[in-house]
Amino acid sequence: MAYDDKGKILYVSGFGVFHVLDVSNVTDMIIKDRRIYYDSDLTDIEFCGDYIFFALVNGTNDASRENGTVYVLKKYKANSSDSLKVIHKIQVGSLPDMIKPTKDCRTVVVAIEAEAYGSSDSFQDPKGGVGIIRFPNGVENTPEYMGLDFTKFNDRQPELEKEGVRFVYRENGNTFDRDIEPEYITFNNDETKAYIALQENNAIAIVDLEKSVIDEIKGLGYKTWDKYTLDASDKDGGINMNNYDFIRSFYLPDSIKYHHWNDVDIIVTANEGDSKDYKDGFNEERRGKKFDAAVLSDKIPRSIKSDLTNDSRLGRLKFTNVDGRDSTGKYENLYFFGGRGFTIRKASDMSILYDSGDIIEKKTSSLAPEIFNSDTEGKKSVNDQMDNQSDSKGPESETVEIAEIGGRLFIFVGSERPGTIAVFSVGDNFKDTKFDHLYFNIAEYDKPLKDLYKERKISEIDPEDLKFVPARKSPNGKNILFVAGSVSGTLSILEV
Predict the structure, then answer these.
(1) Contact 270/414 with Cβ under 8 angstroms?
(2) Domain at 466, CATH number
(3) Is residue 466 in a domain?
(4) Which of 122, 158, 203, 387 registers the highest number of CB atoms within 10 A of its CB?
(5) Out of 48-62, 70-84, 286-300, 399-413, which region has the weakest mean confidence (pLDDT)?
């Protein structure tokens, strides 16, 4: 989503379409225009000044994804021949996932995710990278493009691995710089640095925008669960939050946001979790019961080994089979995917100031048990899918938004399964951060989701994007939150 606060226009992209919505009347939004790009996927859309920027990936075949493009268009103007006029098409590389312009619109940073594709002899894993588009003479004049890759970090990979940076796919002679997959971008306040989430690699890259270089890769470490509980099984008869004091998880954040609060630069991460699964047969996920005793180190407690054989305990939970081995090849640690919540980190070194622990999963279990860790298959009801994602990533917290309201800092956390928004208020020293509210909008639990959608009784299923607009810029003069539901295909406006 991208919002033009002067025109009260919202641009929303999905698959091969972007819509132009007049949101001046928040209770009666109107689609004013749309653009369709067949056999393509629009991965992100942004608005700056008088221009729209969006990333497009050709979906004709796997190889065509190598030629990702950033489009630059003039903004929507009713009854104008220049409305949505294409100014530039800029080739940027393999699978641009997110784009972000600076406030002056003169620089656009592109996360080149470069996911692997193909199988057997045709398997390819392009280099992940960061694209920098500059408009030295203004957006409508000739752009300059520079692509940055991570090759210089190949020799440092063993060192980075100790900090929690993952090198997942090592087969077929693959290198670390090809395994890296940049996804989400956020800037510091003066826009001299870009922080870019490398989700599957469990890391954040820091780019110096003044020098146009990738300065650092910061590992995010792992989460221990000795103080928290989780529901680790979809075959345990419902909601069962248990403590497992030995297992770990990688944070693997999707959305990340920078903010400056109480003299501290922070990065807030939505710890969705993600794994790699390729057509050539590689899949890093392995259920707990598939870890035979012979491959487990003596360091793993007997209680955990027993739980791994039990489908109602850890037997169904999906772990990675890549990390955690000792020098003999046995697993001395077991890591699953995602943090089932969000984390506040210090931007300077990525040290943790606050983690939500098990709060989102617990609050969902008590406030909305019918949708607890539910899947989002349209042909089934919520009741039929409740608990279905407990063995995977649980609530799957995937997006965050930050807002200052009345001198206080709030964090909104969108969780994919099936669609909740948790609201937290941040304490002065961050550790005092508190849960405030859980929002969800499913009217009935016993009807298929597709029927509820047709009856307009459902929205915000898989909240892929959240955008806070303060009262001074909003259409109705009140603080609002735009919510894009990816699975429901909906746009919602919530008053905050």
Answers:
(1) yes
(2) 2.130.10
(3) yes
(4) 203
(5) 48-62
Strand 335-337 to strand 248-250: parallel, antiparallel, or no bridges (unpaired)? parallel
**Using an 8 Å Cβ cutoff, are 409 and 402 in contact?**
yes
Inter-residue contact 334 to 297 (CB < 8 Å): no
Q: What is the pTM of this model?
A: 0.97
Count Cα neighbours of 425 within 13 Å in the Cβ-side half-sphere: 10
Count of other CB atoms within 10 angstroms of residue 318: 19
What is the Cβ-side half-sphere exposure of residue 4, based on CA atoms within 13 angstroms? 24
State how far the Cα of 385 lies from the Cα of 372, in Å rounded to an integer.
9
* Number of folded domains that form the chain: 1
In whole angstroms, how far apart are CA 197 and each of 67, 192, 251, 259, 483? 22, 17, 11, 15, 21
Per the structure, the complete domain to which residue 367 belongs is given by 120-127+148-495
Of the candidates 334, 337, 322, the residue with the CA atom closest to the CA atom of residue 297: 334
Q: Which amino acid is at 334?
A: L
Mean pLDDT value of segment 386-415? 98
- Residue 297 maps to a domain: yes
Cβ atoms of residues 482 and 476 within 8 Å: no
pLDDT of 21 over the 80 cut:
yes
User: Tokens for 65?
Assistant: 């994804």
Residues 454-482, buried b or exposed e (16+ Cβ, 10 A)?
eeeebbbbbbbbbbbbeeeebbbeebbbb
C-beta separation of 95 from 180 below 8 A: no
Read off the pLDDT of each residue in 60-89 and give the average, rounded to a whole number: 92
The average pLDDT across 354-372 equals 97
Tokens encoding 297: 């180190």
In a domain, 250, yes or no: yes
Is 457 a member of any domain?
yes
Confidence of residue 457 (pLDDT cuts 50, 70, 90): confident
For 55, 98, 108, 420, 438, the CA distances from 185, given in Å and listed in that order, are 13, 7, 11, 23, 26
